[in-house]
Amino acid sequence: MKFTRMLTTKLTSFWLMSLAAIAFVFLLSAMMSFVQLTYKFQQQKVSELESLLIEHYQTQPDWELESWLPPMLLAYNAVEFRLTMKSEVLFAYQGNVQTQNAMVYTHLLDPKSGLNMTLTLPQPFEHYSVSWYELLILGVGLLAVIALVRFGHVWFSQQLDGIEELAQRSRLILQGKHEQALATPGNGKPRLINRALTKLLEELQDAHKERGRFDKFIRSNTFLDAQTRIGNRLFLNNRLDALSHDQGMVAHGVIYLLEMDDLDLLQQAKGESAVKELLHATVNSINSILQTLPNSIFARRSHNQFAIVVPHVSLIEADQLASKLLKVCLSQPLPDDVENQDNFYHLGCAYFTAGDNVNQLLDEADMALRAAQLQGNSNWFMYDKGAIDEEFAKGSVRWRSFLENALVQRRFYPFSQPVMDSDGVEHHKEIFTRARDNQGALVRATLFIPMANKCGLMPQVERQMIERVLGLLAQEQHKNQVYSVNLSLDTLMSRAFTQWLKTTLLEYRHLTPQLIFEVSEDIVIQHQDKLKPKLDMIRKMGARLCVDHVGQQVVGTYYIRECHFDMIKLHRSIVRHIHLRPENQLFIRSLIGGLYRTEVQVCAEGIEVFEEWQTLQILGVGMAQGMYFSEPIEVQ
């Protein structure tokens, strides 16, 4: 912990310096006091000798100094002693002590007679030696000081560990990693601050979830039918616009119009609760069938009419699906007193191919519905508009053969479309996959991708495309380019592909910052728990994550934070004619507001006219792609 080590070192240094200063002052004071007392003790002995001499001089004229003075001088370790009266020497003593720095005391004992004493003594500490007992006391003192410093260092470190944990949590918060900061509360001290941070992070998380629920509420009230909770007419129009280009469908499929005759009569006879119960049962049964059909659309056009759009199905599969839908509708129990129970459900079907007009398609489905109603009993009718393009009639066996040969011969090619920012600068390029048949003609992705999913070959296709992109990035002319690659559900759920991708990203770690992996919103919502570890692995390898088709489904946006996406792409159904649709503008404003204070970038796909891009920029969308900027171009 760098912060702890730095602060602990400073505080410990201050602790040691303070302790050393106190010890130094204490020892200096003790030493000075001891020296001073020693000198005073020597001076006191000299004064006592002086007093004895004066007393003997005054009481005993004959002195008799030889009898008592030499032993006393010997006890004093005197170097030399002289007692004189004026110039006459009365007594002299020469000791055996040798010294270089002697202390000479000269005192006038009697001013009248001129009695003077000169005493030479050695320095008080000259013959002093330190004993083992004194050394032991000094060593114990030093050990006590070291132990105290060590204890202070450990105590400071333990106390500052909590401060470091608070600093780490604060650093995570400043970096925007709120979930990680909340997941590691630790034992930060002061504990009051740590608990306050945890409470604020929990409230912030609840606020984010509430904002996601509010966004979902806005989208629900804008695009969902209040009674059945499926898409409304506006939702249907948006999705059909997304499936078309210049009013022409971009793929093949089928549209069904389901009408419940005499629903108004049932409401008058049995009330609102009976109608609501019947609608919920019917809608749930149809939803259970559509769950196995990717990108299907289910919406309520009017009080008693529903629309179902299923792309990428053959004509035979459309007939089978119509029979299945009618069968589940007829299985719903009707009240006994309802008249014409056998003539309650009617289904009109219209099969479409690429290029068919949207409005004409709805008219054909409506005519098929009227034809089914004219037949009397509950039934379905398929509008017949001639032969279907035999390209769509390829069976699974033929498609598998075509796809396997294309994989072996590496006939899947990358096409790129630029993503532009608000300044008109290219941010990155999205990679689209195209295949070539044996004659060299391009096969549309809308044709082979559904078949590749059915045949389980999508992981191999996307693996080959990633290999091509990495090969492009290794070239000199593409060294600064950033590419985004789409990943399907089957690919992400494949253990073999995941292991290969991990190994490949490790091998090309220097190129991973130039890769963006895109995942569709619907598969993230449905399989978030299973996909999150795989998405985390990709992000930890250095690549970025993007979720596309945002807005296609009416769901909350909490998954964007939980899965740590770097970018989101708005679905073309939200972007199409955005300048004319205030309800779509409201959704985008709400979405961008929910991503406030995050680093998630918002991109719009499917831009076709300047007005759309201008409106999106005003709403706060920073990037866009579409035919307005460029068509997909093959990457060489």
Automatic annotation (TrEMBL):
Alphabetized SUPFAM superfamilies for the sequence:
EAL domain-like (SSF141868), Nucleotide cyclase (SSF55073)
Show where the EAL domain sits: 396-636
What's the encoding gene here?
csrD
InterPro entries for this protein = Cyclic-di-GMP_PDE-like, EAL_dom, EAL_sf, GGDEF_dom, Nucleotide_cyclase, Rev_trsase/Diguanyl_cyclase
- Alphabetized SMART domains for the sequence: EAL, GGDEF
Q: Which UniProt keywords apply?
A: Membrane, Transmembrane, Transmembrane helix
Q: Name one Pfam family in it.
A: EAL
**What name appears for this protein in its UniProt entry?**
RNase E specificity factor CsrD
Species of origin reads Shewanella mangrovisoli
Please verify whether the record's keywords include Iron.
no
Location of the GGDEF domain: 251-385
Q: Which residues form a coiled coil?
A: none
Q: Report whether Membrane shows up as a keyword of the record.
A: yes
Q: Where are the transmembrane segments?
A: 12-35
Concerning PROSITE patterns, the annotation shows:
EAL, GGDEF
